Amino acid sequence: MKIFVMGAGGQGGPCASILAHDVECSKIVLADIDAKMLEKVEAKLNSSKLSTAKVDANSIDQVTTAAEGCDVIIDLAPPWVALNVMKAALEVNAGYVNTAFDSPFWEQLVEGKPLELDQEFKSDGLTALLGCGMTPGFLNVMARYYADKLDTVESIKLRLGKKRVDYGPYDDLIKPWHPGWSPKQALIDCAVPPHKYRNGSHEEMEPYGEIEEWDFPEPVGKMAVSHHSHEEVYTLPFFIGKEIKYCDFKYYVAPQPAALVTLGLASQEPINVNGVDIKPIDFVAELMPKPLSAFLEETEESALKNEQNAFMSMMIEMTGSKNGQAITYKINCPRFTSPAKELLNLFGTTLVNVSLPAVIGAKMIFEKRQSGVIFPEQLDPEDFLNRFSKTGIPYQWEEL
Predict the structure, then answer these.
(1) What per-residue confidence (pLDDT) applies to 354?
(2) Both 64 and 159 in a single domain?
(3) What's the pTM?
(4) 223/110 same-domain check
(5) Residue 299 is part of which domain span?
């Protein structure tokens, strides 16, 4: 299988590393607009499978030229260029996978309109799999897996918490915020009014609306969470089926982005400063730590340090019924980045949480095409999880 990876940043480097260690992948083309970034990733991987191409994802022609001959495009560029890369996939007759999406798909799902490029992918017998990362992605597959155990599903609540145990009581307030992916996209996610789904319709909420405390398994523990703009709320109610009545996604309340949003520093509306028009979000994103450094600077020592200190919990609380009996599932999906030594041996990196589900999704749509635009909860969950396990990753989720 030949894979074209668009974007060499925070997720592109790890994705190329996973593919370089994958015997089913014979060729990797890694593309980015930043030639120096490509050189650094290529030098770190030192793989005969890998070639690089300087490509601007805003140019369909450039993507098409570079991706010619590839079977699947894994798009790890920012979501606002997704349609360009999808159109290039159609041009080269390739499947398409991304790990995040937003407009126009969110609006089309809410309004019940045909999905952009869905008919084109169907006509060509190709699949565009949107949002197949960690969350959205792995968490959607898990939701499907447990929904299939029930006759009815009343509600799905998704919660995500993070904690560093080596932080002091005030470090969250004074250390730079480092989301781990595009700083601009992370700020957009925090600033865009989130939705929740209730009784057949979506309701727009205020950013950081309906804060509550949620009990995550230790060492994450109890922490404040609030509504967060995320893909799952748009897709799960429609594609899980079973007449779901409620769905929401809440993310832990990090103080730094909350302050930026409430001050207006995540705004995309230009303001005039001393005669110069500038978007506040662009200024802030430029100052934030860049995501690529985590992969390029990863060593066994740094990976072991993160294993000991950085924790995550993704939780699903699903209520429904089976054979007339009320049932609640509470599922905990911990971090993907442990055990560090095993992951480094398997994939050359521990930073597999987003890219590994994307690679599995790419294989599934290449081997078993579901024509059109689809989402992770429309994949066969048992097939997905079996493939996930066969990578050798020693990962377990918990039924609490």
Answers:
(1) 95
(2) no
(3) 0.93
(4) no
(5) 138-338
